[in-house]
Design goal:
This protein is mainly beta. The protein has 3 domains: 15-140, Immunoglobulin-like (Sandwich); 147-194, no CATH class; 199-278, Sandwich (Immunoglobulin-like). 11% of the residues lie in helices and 34% in strands. It has 3 helices and 16 strands. The strands form 5 sheets. The chain has a 4-stranded antiparallel β-sheet with strand order 5-4-7-8, with no helix packed on it. β4 (63-67) and β5 form a beta hairpin. The longest helix has 15 residues, at 15-29. The chain is globular and about 70 Å long.
Length: 278
């Protein structure tokens, strides 16, 4: 029998080469005999970006795992660099069975939902869900997208070019709306628009006050792989002791208007907190 022997590559595989490797994984992974009808496994593959830098084949401390639950047994695992033909890609082989009960508790069936966990020496770095839709699927799922900041000022190059036309500005630069460039980037606002900053609207309404703001989606140049979250906070003092308003914590920005009606006390102060996360 001819044995499958991986050959090292000096450069990342082409798409055609990568699919050849994945097809080979499918072929050599089927068992010779089984107590039930075997199913073609699912193959999940892709690239990884951590800390704004691509993971390469020599970073062997990076591992991708499939589990049913966060602390459950490992269903499938791949350590970066363990197969030289895959170069800087990862590939998870998820074995399937056709009928219940499972002969192997670590196998899966069509319709099962798995957790795909990315970890390194520091612990879990990312996590996503994967549902097995049909037998024999080959699915690409990349972790993270690099956002380039060549001058290291905290502002992605693509964002700086979109708003300023060059890389001559830096994070503390104050735009026409009174916010710094970094604050505008985080809030998703236009530094060149005097009226374009992040603001709360507070309008009296009989004995109530209606507090509202626009929760902007993280989209466009420089926001690849990121999401924007909003928290509304209140305090009896204008500059300190702010606490989150119940039900208005970590709201995902999706270009929606967020509205809160406040009744008591009437001398309450409000502020909004915006964060940008992978």
């Amino acid at each position: 029998m001819k044995m499958f022997r991986p050959k090292p590559l000096r450069s990342p595989p082409s798409t055609a080469r990568l699919f050849t490797v994945i097809a080979t994984l499918l072929l050599i992974s089927l068992p010779a005999a089984w107590a039930v009808i075997p199913e073609p496994p699912n193959i999940l593959y892709g690239t990884i970006t951590l800390d704004n830098a691509p993971v390469t084949a020599d970073m062997t401390n990076v591992v991708v795992e499939a589990r049913r639950t966060t602390n459950g047994p490992v269903v499938a695992s791949y350590r970066i660099g363990s197969d030289l033909q895959l170069a800087s890609y990862y590939a998870l082989r998820v074995p399937l069975e056709s009928v219940a009960p499972l002969m192997d508790a670590t196998n899966s069936q069509v319709g099962d939902r798995l957790l795909i966990i990315l970890r390194d020496a520091s612990g879990v770095r990312a996590q996503t869900n994967f549902t097995i839709v049909e037998r024999g699927d080959v699915v690409r799922a990349d972790f993270g997208t690099a956002v380039f900041d060549s001058d290291g000022d905290g502002l992605p190059d693509a964002w700086e070019l979109a708003y300023f036309g060059n890389l001559g500005r830096n994070g503390p630069f104050v735009g026409l709306n009174g916010m710094t460039a970094l604050q505008n980037y985080i809030a998703g606002t236009n530094p060149n628009d005097p009226n374009g900053g992040f603001k709360l609207s507070i309008v009296p309404n009989n004995e109530q006050r209606r507090v509202s703001f626009l929760a902007i989606q993280a989209a466009g140049p420089g926001y690849e792989g990121k999401s924007r979250y909003y928290t509304l906070e209140s305090s009896l003092h204008p500059v300190s002791n702010y606490v989150a308003v119940t039900g208005f914590t970590n709201l995902l920005g999706n270009n929606q208007t967020v509205l809160h009606s406040s009744t008591t006390p009437t001398n309450l102060f409000f502020r909004g907190r915006v964060t940008l996360r992978p």
